[in-house]
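[Discussion] Sanity-checking designs against the backbone

I'm trying to build intuition for which residues belong where. Below is a structure token string of 161 positions. I'd appreciate it if someone posts a full sequence so I can compare it with mine line by line.
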């Protein structure tokens, strides 16, 4: 089963288009994944989203960083394949469908950084969680986490652009 983790973090509070991007993302995800599989990590700055999206499962991102939000969400979703979506990017439905259908670890890369979409298989999820746990203080990009997981555990992650 696939669960979707939408990631919100402190620096997104300044994005004036965030709400419209988020509404489009949630609408698209509800259609092709279903409303029961949508989770969102957010900081206390986004309290207004509780009323706007009552059917999402909320996970507290008490540190406010992007990597910590991913970490908290992945820990909560252990036991599932997880599609990770950056709430600050425009959701790419076709890319997400492609990632899920390939049934392997996938990540979207833009300008050598995480492009806002990743798919992590259940069997490899604990390795990603463990690696992120060690890197939380550094606040690195998800691409660095993928490189570290590959180097330390030999787990492949296909990179898409």
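Best answer:
Here's mine. Compare freely.
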């Amino acid at each position: 089963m696939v669960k979707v983790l939408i990631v919100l973090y402190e620096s997104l509070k300044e994005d004036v288009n965030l709400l419209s991007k988020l509404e489009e993302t949630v609408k698209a995800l509800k259609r092709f994944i279903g409303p029961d599989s949508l989770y969102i990590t957010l900081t206390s700055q986004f309290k207004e989203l509780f009323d706007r999206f009552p059917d999402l499962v909320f996970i507290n991102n008490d540190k406010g960083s992007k990597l910590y939000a991913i970490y908290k969400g992945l820990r909560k979703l252990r036991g599932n394949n997880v599609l990770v979506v950056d709430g600050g990017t425009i959701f790419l439905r076709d890319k997400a469908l492609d990632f899920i259908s390939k049934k392997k670890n996938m990540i979207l890369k833009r300008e050598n950084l995480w492009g806002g979409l990743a798919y992590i298989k259940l069997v490899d999820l604990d390795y990603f969680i463990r690696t992120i746990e060690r890197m939380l203080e550094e606040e690195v990009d998800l691409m660095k986490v993928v490189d570290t997981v590959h180097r330390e555990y030999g787990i492949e992650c296909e990179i898409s652009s």
